[in-house]
Amino acid sequence: MRHKLFGVVEGQYRRQSELNFDIGDTVVVTTRIIEGEKERLQDYEGTVIARKGAGLDAMFTVRRLVGNEGVERVFPLHSPKVVSIRTVRSGKIRRAKLYFLRDRVGKARKLRERRVSAEARAAAAGARLERDRRVAEAQEAVAAAN
Amino acid sequence: MVPAILGKKVGMTQVFGPAGERMPVTIVEAGPCVVLQVKAADAADGYHAVQLGFEDVKPHRSTLPAIGHSRKAQTSPKRFIREIRLSDATDRKVGDVVTVDIFKDAGVKYVDVVGISKGKGFQGAMKRYGFGGQPGSHGTERKHRSPGSIGAHAQNRGTSGAIKKGKRMSGHMGSDRQTIRNQAIVGMDAENNVLWIRGAIPGPPGGYVVIRKSKTRSE
Description:
heterodimer, A: alpha+beta, five-stranded antiparallel beta sheet, 25% helix, B: mainly beta, six-stranded antiparallel barrel, four-stranded antiparallel beta sheet, 8% helix, globular
């Protein structure tokens, strides 16, 4: 079993918000870019095609088209350089990794949209946070019992 | 007292630095340690030191002398006990508790970590000392990893024909006391008695270590 202190340390670095996006969502990722002395923010919009890794190592892949060339960027989910992850649209999908999109051309690239109302989105996020909190509590309780 | 504490290696992970860069860290469960004994130069001991004890051990798994020793500090017997040598007298008393805050209070940024390295068993000269071994071909047969010649005769410039003592050969590797110096403290949490240190430290997860203020680097 992973030692509980991993959670204590990693918890201090974990992203607190905007974890509520899904595979297939179109997101705008704002990153902090350092150019020489100056620092600026850059937006990158595309479809989330994969999420992998656990804990602080979690990464997500965002695919978009630049010109007519597919571009994929992989972001560390918890990096402080990733300032925000905003969900623009949600896609209707049936699998966890959307690598098949790489082979698709033209209109086939589009994912069917999953209409989600703002309330439903907030509710889902709330439910997920609640679930995470309960899991964390349970883990703490187990750790305390040991 | 020199900022020092005893702890147990938990394992490694990676965390984010201030600029978003990732860095490898080792998590250490450090303290709380109890001062079991204070030694002073003007007393019978002849030098200044404090003895720290870390992690309780059940009395029935301990020995009566150890139980008696820890009782003087009104505490239970400890599993890991080490002495921290000091240059001056300290105001710490027997029974005092040392936590990771000792590093914060003293503004320590770099530490030396002493531990017992992972045992590697009986290893050849290539792994143990980084020897080059012998060629893979050109007539070399069945001795590609051998250390080669260990000397003709009388290498000690003595009268005997024996090989000089300490000649580096294959043998037991690891399970040695190792000190890694000048590792930066990345973070600490006194509430959970945890310290995380940049880079690796000696030993396996669960191994006991001594962490003390770096002897050579303060800034």
